Amino acid sequence: MNKLKQFSIIGTLFLSSMTQAKDEPKLSWQSTQVADGLYMLSGVGGFTGGNLGLSVGEDGVILIDDAMPSTLGIMNTAIKAITDKPIDFLINTHVHGDHAGNNETMGNNGVHIVAHENMREHLLVKGVQAADGSMQPAPKASLPVITFKHSMDFHLNGMNAHVFHLPSAHTDGDSAIHFTDVNVIHMGDTFFHKLFPYIDYNSGASLDGYIAAQKTVLARSDDETKIIPGHGPLASKKDLEESIAMLENAKMMVSDLVKAGKSEEEILKINPLEEKYGALSWGFITTEKMTKQLINGITQVAKEHTHEGSKPHSH
């Protein structure tokens, strides 16, 4: 190959890569003020992790969730654009790495980590997932140092924040945070807005518990409530109502097929969710995956009822 042609090819590849890099959106966090001193941080340009909450005021800084190690830098940049104060408390809504992936860094920086007791237990027993996918013991610094069983309250920055457990929903250690004075609720992954949810049965979740969790938060909401979902845009009471209606209807559709004796393979072939709810499909939870989750949740309950029915009755 002559040098002119070689340089031409290299030049073409260089320009191509530059154009591609220019066209690719830059990964960042976007902040939305939802009340005085209270912000929602959400990813822009790609997957950054779950939506964050940030309370800033005279008493200090409370961060809700801390995303993934790969987005720690841009997360800190977004937080520093709001406040120069150090983070005092971190509230984990649950155990997954896209919401608690920077716990070790936070703990090492002196941040007090708060979570439901089941989340701490999960980390102690199961550990954390390493980059290669294997499970490793959770570093001491990543563990919540303040835990609760049912609920707890923060009285900081002129706001009351009620942190409460949502049992057996997305996991067995889910927390929601209700800033009662300003009518804002952070739901973590008990709410995926405009997306099919992920229900982690391997971490103590249940289909009925997931629906019940949304109904619990709905009962705390009114037409002015701002709801920060674990993933998706800022939401309202109406959006949460639509999510509950979707889950209950989708459960009924799949349940009818299970009761009719259809196998999982047959149900997936029918693809019952596609026509009405196909727009909620995304990379991780497609209509097929959501249908499987529904089947698992329905059959899980059926097995539990069968097991309960087989137990001898005491007199």
If you had to describe this structure to a student in words, what would you say it looks like?
The structure is a single chain. The protein has about 325 residues and is α/β, with parallel strands linked by helices. The protein has a domain of about 210 residues: Ribonuclease Z/Hydroxyacylglutathione hydrolase-like (Metallo-beta-lactamase, Chain A). Helix content is about 40%, strand content about 25%. The protein has ten helices and 14 strands. Strands 1-2-3-4-5-6-9 form a seven-stranded mixed β-sheet. A five-stranded mixed β-sheet has the order 10-11-12-13-14. Strand 2 and strand 3 form a beta hairpin. Helix 6 runs antiparallel to helix 7. The longest helix has 23 residues. The radius of gyration is 22 Å and the shape is globular.
Strand arrangement, largest sheet? Answer: 1-2-3-4-5-6-9
How is the CATH topology of the domain at 26-237 named?
Answer: Metallo-beta-lactamase, Chain A
Overall pLDDT confidence? 90
Can you tell me the CATH class of the domain at 26-237?
Alpha Beta
The Cα radius of gyration reads 22 Å
CATH architecture of the domain at 26-237: 4-Layer Sandwich
Classified in CATH, the superfamily of the domain at 26-237 is: Ribonuclease Z/Hydroxyacylglutathione hydrolase-like
Say how many strands there are.
14
Order of helices and strands: HEEEEHEHHEHEEEEEEEHEHHHH
Structural class estimated from helices and strands:
alpha/beta
Report low-confidence residues grouped into runs of 5 or more: 1-22
Q: What proportion of the residues form beta strands (DSSP E)?
A: 15-25%
User: Kindly, what is the distance between the CA atoms of the first and last residues, rounded to a whole number of angstroms?
Assistant: 92 Å
The helix count comes to 10
Helix content: 25-40%
Shape: globular
